[in-house]
Amino acid sequence: MDLHTLAAGLAMGLGGIGPGIGLGIGFSKAMEAIGRNPEASGTIFVPYILGLALTEAIGIYALVVSLIILFAAK
Amino acid sequence: MVHVEIAAEQLFTIGPLIVTNSMIGALLASMVLLVIARFFANGSAIVPSRGQSLVELPIEFLAGIVRGTGGKRWRQFAPLIFAIFLFVLTANWMSLLPGVGTIGLAKQASDGTKIIVPFVRAGAADLNFTLGLALISFVSFIAFGLRANGVGGYLKELLIAEPAYMTPLLTPIHLISELSRVISLSMRLFGNVFAGEVLLATMLALTTATVFMLPLAFVIPGVFIGLELLFGLVQALVFALLSMTYITLAIAEHRQHGEAEHHSGEGPEQSTASAHGAA
After folding, report:
1. Helix/strand/coil (H/E/C) assignment for every residue in B124-142
2. Which of A45, A60, A61 is best to mutate for the B interface (most B CBs within 10 A)?
3. Is residue B27 a contact partner of residue B140, using CB atoms and an 8 Å limit?
4. What is the rounded distance in angstroms from the CA atom of residue B268 to the CA atom of residue B273?
C-alpha cells in the first residue's frame, strides 16, 4: 500500500482531534451563555466566530498538510 | 478517481505574467462587484428600492459588527474590511456557479489519463489569492499601528516586552506571532475553499460511481453545495473580522498605553488616598 495515503489519513485524523474538542468546548460555552442571557447573543456572536476561526485553523493546517502529502509531495 | 490540482493551472501568458484560471475567477468576482457598485452607486436614494436594500444588506450587517467591536475609529478602516468581506464572499459564492471548475480544455496528463484544465477556478482555491489578501491585511494593520503609535511607539511596542527583563524571551514569540497571522489567515481561507471544492468533486464522483446511485447524484451534491454557501459566508466573515481585530489591536495598543500613562498620572493620588484609608 502507498504510504502517502496512510500518512495523509493519519495527519488529518489525528489533526482533527484537537480542534474538534476545542470547537465543542467553545460551542457549548457559547450556547450556555446564550441560554443564560439570550439578549447577549448579538454580543457573543463576533467573539464566538473569531474563536471558532482560530480553533479551526489548527484543523485546517492538518488538512492542508494532508492535501499536500496526497497531491503535491509525490 | 477525482483529479485534484493544488496549484492553479496556467492558461496563457501575457509577456512575463502567467495568467492562471484562478486569476480569471478573482477578476470575474471583482468585475461583478464593480458592476454592482457602479449600478447602485449612481441611483442610490435615501428611501432605497428593493434592489438597493438587497445590496446594502451585507454592508449594514457588517457595519453593525464593525461599529460594535471596532472601537472609536471604526470609520477609518471600515471600507477596507467591507472590501475584503465582499470580495471574498463574491469569489466564494461565484465558485459554486455551474461551469466554474468544470468547463475547460481537455488535456493529457503525465500518466496518460485525460484531465480537464478549467477556464475558471474559485479565486480562493489558490494560495496566491489568499496570501495576497493576507498580506494586504498585514500591511494595513502595521500601517494603522504606525499611524496610531508613531514609528518609535510602534517599534517599542513590537520589540520591548512589558517587564523589560523578559524582552529576550518574549520578543521572538511576539515577532513570530505577528508573522504567523499572515500564514494562518491565508491558510485558513485557502484550506476551507480548496477542501470545499475537493469535497464537492468527491461527492459527485461517489454518487455517480454506479448506476444504482445515480438518483442520489441529484440530491447529495446539492446538500453539500448548500453547506458550501454557508462556509463561503462564514469564511468571508472570519477573514474580514480577523483583519478588523488585528487592526483594532494595533490601534488599541496605543490607547492602552495612553491609559496606562493616564493611570500612572492618577496613581499617586489613588495610592495616597488608599494609604490614608489604611492609615
Report:
1. HHCHHHHHHHHHHHHHHHH
2. A60
3. no
4. 8
Specify the 3-state DSSP secondary structure of B225: helix
Name the maximum alpha-carbon separation found in chain A: 55
* Nearby residues of B3 by Cβ (< 8 Å), 6 or more positions away: B109, B113, B115, B116
Pairing outcome for strands B17-20 and B10-14: antiparallel
User: pLDDT for B250-272, tens place per residue?
Assistant: 887 554 544 444 444 443 444 33
pLDDT digits (tens, 9 = 90+) for B38-76: 887 776 677 777 777 887 888 888 888 888 877 778 888
Q: Does A23 touch chain B (CB under 8 A)?
A: no
Hey, is the C-beta of B237 within 8 angstroms of any chain A C-beta?
Answer: yes
| Span between the terminal Cα atoms of chain B, in Å | 82
Give the pLDDT score at B43.
67
Q: What is the mean pLDDT of residues B185-198?
A: 89
The CB-side HSE value for B22 (13 A sphere, CA atoms) comes to: 20
Q: Which residues pair with B136 in a beta bridge?
A: none
C-alpha cell at B202: 468527491
**CA angle (B198 as vertex; B195, B204 as ends), nearest 5:** 140
Question: To the nearest whole angstrom, how far is the Cα of A32 from the nearest Cα of chain B?
Answer: 22
Asked if B153 and B126 touch (Cβ cutoff 8 Å), the reply is: no
**In chain B, which residue ranges form alpha helices assigned H by DSSP?**
21-42, 50-69, 74-94, 127-159, 167-207, 220-278
What whole-number distance in Å separates Cα of residue B195 and Cα of residue B234?
A: 15
Write out pLDDT tens, residues A10-25: 999 999 999 999 999 9
Q: What is the pTM for the complete model shown?
A: 0.82
Cα distance between residue B244 and residue B143, in whole Å: 13
Longest dimension (CA), chain B: 90
User: Burial level of B222, CB count in 10 A (0-12/13-18/19+)?
Assistant: exposed
User: Which of B4, B195, B245 comes nearest A63 by C-beta?
Assistant: B195
